[in-house]
Amino acid sequence: MMVYLSAIAGLICGFFAGQALLSVILRGYSRQEILEKMKGDRGWKLKYGLLNWAVSLAGTFLFVYIYRHYAAGP
Asked: Has this prediction a pTM greater than 0.90?
């Protein structure tokens, strides 16, 4: 049961980490420019959306790994 809670916590933390990464990557663009590019260019939406979900999944795997190797009993 605790491994599921660890996975959910990892997904949430990974999602926030992905949003922070996107804010750093897209720092040079205004909010209006980002919205225009997201509406006009499907590649932008796909690239940056998948980047955020990839970071979320990496956070999930990291939290589950930490739980299994360090927090779970023998």
From this structure: no
